[in-house]
Design brief:
The chain contains 3 helices and 10 strands. 32% of the residues lie in helices and 37% in strands. The chain has helices spanning 13-16, 109-135, 141-160; strands at 2-3, 9-10, 22-23, 27-34, 39-40, 45-52, 56-61, 70-77, 80-93, 100-106. It is α+β, with helices and mostly antiparallel strands.
């Protein structure tokens, strides 16, 4: 660890990136939790994820978010919405897109696990589309899920157990 002064400790880049990041681009919304009232400050703000890891989520939004803020992220999939809590660890405006790239760290392991499951659901849906094209016929989400589990369940299991 490198010390800049007695109050601030900066980790080298390789230590900050403890988890493998997986690209994932899905529309989400987030709300800032007001600590004093333990209530949500505002309605959900739109954002799009860039990547996800076991440690957190990176998303882009039009609005800056204060570092240290507790946020609730809504991850939608079809008729389900998964809520996860995380803490904002950085917020940087991109000069190219003019959007804010917000990095958040999951508050609890269960939030990380929920996010990973949503990621898998999206990947299975993409896999279904690919297999339908390869086979020249539509396959069901259930059939795609069975194939996906047969191929990737062991790898997924190693991530968590």
């Amino acid at each position: 660890m490198n010390k800049k002064n007695s109050d601030i400790i900066t980790l080298p880049t390789d230590e900050r990136r403890r988890f493998i990041r997986h690209p994932l681009s899905i529309p989400i919304s987030y709300k800032i939790v007001k600590k004093t009232q333990n209530a949500i400050k505002e309605k959900g703000l739109p954002a799009v994820t860039s990547n996800v890891s076991m440690g957190g989520l990176l998303f882009s939004t039009k609005h800056p978010v204060k570092v240290g803020s507790l946020i609730v992220i809504k991850l939608p999939f079809k008729d389900k919405i998964f809520n996860v809590q995380s803490k904002v660890v950085h917020c940087v405006k991109s000069p190219e897109t003019k959007l804010y790239n917000v990095g958040s760290s999951f508050y609890r392991f269960t939030d990380a696990f929920k996010t990973k499951l949503v990621e898998q659901i999206y990947l299975i849906a993409e896999y279904r589309d690919l297999r339908s094209i390869q086979l020249g016929r539509e396959i069901s989400l259930e059939e795609a899920s069975r194939e996906w589990i047969e191929r990737y369940a062991e790898r997924f299991k190693r991530l968590y157990w």
